[in-house]
Amino acid sequence: MSAKDNHKQQQQRAVARMVAAAMSTPCSIKPLLVAIPLALGFALGIVATLSLMGSTASSALPGAALELFFPSPPVNVSTEVRRRQPPRPAQVHPQAAPAVSPPVAHAGIRRHAGPPPVQRRQAAPATGVSSPPSPPVVDAGSANKRAAMPVNVTTTNEGGERAVVDDDDRLMALAAAAPRTVRAAAGCAPKVAFLFLAKWDLPMAPLWERFFEGHRGLYSVYVHTGPAFNASAAAAPDSSSAFHRRHIPSKEVKWGHISMVEAERRLLAHALLDHSNARFILLSESHVPLFDFPTVYSYLINSTKVYMESYDELGGTGRGRYKRGMAPTIIPWQWRKGSQWFEMDRALAVDVVADDVYFPVFKKFCKRNCYADEHYLPTFLHIRHPEAAAGRTVTWVDWSHGGPHPSRFTRMEVTMDFLQWLRGGTTCEYNGRTTTVCFLFARKFLPNSLTRFLRFAPKVMGFG
């Protein structure tokens, strides 16, 4: 007997023993009678299938028969033909501004102790504020309509020469060549230039009109707004308005971008073309005056300092914004921070617009998480004129709530007590003497607070 036959008999005997063992177990006979034929049929089917597969062409792959019952894991081929999706852009969160005001040692201001002057509501202050109007549609074919284009400011120097400039490079060159000292016409007093840097319109303009009323010849006004808004704002029919045709050729400004500093330099340059302007104050559309014009004028014209913050702050919101590419022109320990709402004299203004050393470095390197409007002028002042700064600003803002922007104030938060506290709630140094007149202006006040200011101005601020 061959080994093959012997192996077959052994398998048959093993199957017989398995059947006998199954029959001897104490279970119901009916399920066994059904299961045994099924098992035998399944086994015979496997044998038959293997025989058929073995008889196929020799090109069949080894193990192909087993893959019918034990298939390999499927191969994911969809990734080979699926179009690659573009990467999702990373979400960049702006660097938060410091939660508190700069240290008192740098600001030069001592606040009087006491509870906060205003009980702030938790509701969002923007409720009830309408969005800015859309730019007007201008019919180019009508000769009776004003063209929708930036309105150039016409300034007159001491010789009566009119200067209208709308090119930044030429503008900066003319302003850099302007005299560093005031050259007012005979019999004329030096003027204070009010530089308004706004997004759209000036909702507080009626309050400012009352502030300027009766003092023509002692001030100049320059307004930089969104380029699309210039035409509608400059088309005010009232020629006696302090803002009549005072919009300069403007360009788009982005928050935290170098374009903010470019707009500030643009305002300074236009104001420098009037040689009778002695002091320059930067304001926003949410600024309000806290004193009457004679007080503000005397305070600025007679000051021996310029009012700009310039302090060294460690951490992510201070030196952490410094860019190493600025070296060696600007080194880390020269880096300074401060509020963008400056006040400066004519000599410093000329130096700022003539700067071809530090500003190009800021323009090239101060981009992401740098905020040039908070660092360019403070750094420039610290390097070039550290002795000129008073170490404080004349604009009051509330940073006590933290975040990248100061607190905003609505109509119901403007009270007489609050305004009195803003006017005299602090002490500081002015021309070597201690005074309680530290802040001449305040922000950020929403447009719906205008009626309150118009009501309280004659009683508290002395004008209107």
From TrEMBL:
One of its GO terms (cellular component) is membrane. GO terms for molecular function: glycosyltransferase activity. Pfam families: Branch. It is found in: Membrane. Keywords: Glycoprotein, Glycosyltransferase, Membrane, Transferase. Residues 90-107, 119-143 have a biased composition (Low complexity). Its main location: membrane. It is a single-pass type II membrane protein. Residues 79-152 are annotated as: Disordered. InterPro entries: BC10-like, Glyco_trans_14. This is Uncharacterized protein. It comes from Triticum aestivum (Wheat).
